[in-house]
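For the sake of transparency, this paper describes our internal protein records without simplification. Because each token names a local backbone shape, the row as a whole describes the fold. One such record is reproduced below, unchanged from the form in which we store it.
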Amino acid sequence: MADNLGQDLVAEDLELSQVDKTVTSEGFAYTRLDCVGKQIGGLGILAEYPFIRNLDLSRNCIKDVRPISSLRHVLSLNLASNHILSMDWAPEDLPHLLYLDMSGNRLQELPPPLLHGGMQILETIPLLRVRSFLVT
């Protein structure tokens, strides 16, 4: 559920594209979801799109990124310019992640995948962008 900084993400806000075979080869699904600059705060609907590989949720009001951890096939994740203070997911939650942009957030600590996975995780994410990082 979103707080007073944004609205819950709903189907009408989604810009779904790129239809590809699912990783299980049982059918086809959208693999790209863009929702940029729409004042979104809540991400509960993401569970309905388990095969998303490219996700751009930049320039919104997102604080809680836990729903993203259910998207096991994400390769590219753009969460730039939101209101994220911390990332509550483990390295194994997003095992295929290759690109992560967390710039322009209010991070108070590095995302757990970077803290607990150390250099192994950094090596698996070729392009990682985390700016404006404050240690408290």
Summary: The CA atoms of residues 31 and 52 lie 4 Å apart. The radius of gyration is 14 Å. Helices lie at 112-124. DSSP finds one helix and eight strands in the chain.
